[in-house]
């Protein structure tokens, strides 16, 4: 019997890898897709490959180049002339959009993942967006996801024919601690992931992403299995 299919947008980070575990737990045959968008943390692409192999999906794992985003710049993740912040706030989202926001990134990711999903007959796309914690990214909000789903239904053959592709965002209202708790329950391979914005062999331990990740493990009473410089 053929299984239901889902495309998982896999960065190689903690959140997207948790989405892989959730999609698998929910009975989906997983088709991971990773984007090389000129990010300074190139290491995460190799991490994504390792995660895909762990879930026995390496043969169908797509790595798509979006290098033009580096040419545009405008983000600390793609423009090396902009310093990665090391001491951002760790509380709820406020009105500020951080310099680590990559303009249009999730919009592009979801558009390309939609094309892939329609070709392979997938009924869902999983993306690890999160509207809580410190992010403040406009393309991680529930209203953004709803609007993209509406466009997908209008712009795809399957949508017009009455079978629109869904965007699944299981982490969108969870804290990092809640995400890690669920990932631990599902035995998600966090040892194969990276969250650091700087992309070195060892995670820096001081950027916002590292700090939030470490805080989530601490709140769960568990140890982060990846190495840190600090």
TrEMBL record:
Pathway involvement of the protein, from the record: Purine metabolism; 7-cyano-7-deazaguanine biosynthesis
Binding site for Zn(2+): 196, 204, 207, 210
The keyword Nucleotide-binding belongs to this UniProt entry's keyword annotation: yes
UniProt-recorded Gene Ontology molecular function terms: ligase activity
EC number: 6.3.4.20
Named cofactor requirement(s): Zn(2+)
Binding residue positions for ATP: 10-20
Cofactor details (free text): Binds 1 zinc ion per subunit.
Top-level EC class: ligase
Keywords (A to Z) from UniProt: ATP-binding, Ligase, Metal-binding, Nucleotide-binding, Queuosine biosynthesis, Zinc
Reactions this protein catalyses: 7-carboxy-7-carbaguanine + NH4(+) + 2 ATP = 7-cyano-7-carbaguanine + 2 AMP + 2 diphosphate + 2 H(+)
Domain of life, source organism: Bacteria
SUBUNIT field: Homodimer.
The family this protein is said to belong to: Belongs to the QueC family.
Its biological purpose: Catalyzes the ATP-dependent conversion of 7-carboxy-7-deazaguanine (CDG) to 7-cyano-7-deazaguanine (preQ(0)).
UniProt name for this protein: 7-cyano-7-deazaguanine synthase
Organism of provenance: Paenibacillus allorhizosphaerae
Lineage: Bacteria, Bacillati, Bacillota, Bacilli, Bacillales
């Amino acid at each position: 019997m053929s299984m239901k299919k889902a495309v998982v947008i896999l960065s190689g980070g903690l959140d997207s890898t948790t989405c892989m575990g959730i999609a698998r737990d929910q009975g989906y045959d997983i088709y991971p897709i990773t984007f090389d968008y000129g990010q300074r943390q190139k290491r995460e692409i190799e991490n994504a490959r390792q995660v895909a192999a762990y879930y026995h999906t390496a043969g169908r794992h797509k790595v798509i180049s979006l290098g033009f985003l580096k040419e545009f710049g405008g983000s600390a993740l793609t423009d090396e002339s902009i310093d990665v912040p090391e001491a951002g706030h760790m509380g709820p989202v406020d009105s500020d959009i951080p310099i680590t926001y990559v303009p249009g990134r999730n919009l592009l990711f979801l558009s390309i993942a939609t094309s892939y999903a329609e070709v392979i007959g997938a009924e869902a796309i999983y993306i690890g967006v999160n509207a809580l914690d410190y992010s403040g990214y406009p393309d991680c909000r529930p209203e953004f996801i709803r609007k993209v789903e509406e466009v997908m239904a209008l712009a795809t053959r399957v949508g017009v024919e009455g079978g629109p592709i869904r965007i699944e965002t299981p982490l969108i209202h969870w804290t990092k601690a809640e995400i890690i708790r669920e990932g631990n329950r599902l035995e998600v391979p966090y040892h194969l992931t990276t969250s650091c914005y700087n992309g070195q062999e060892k995670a820096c331990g001081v950027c916002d992403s590292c700090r939030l990740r470490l805080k989530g493990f601490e709140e769960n009473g568990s140890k982060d299995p990846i190495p840190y410089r600090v």
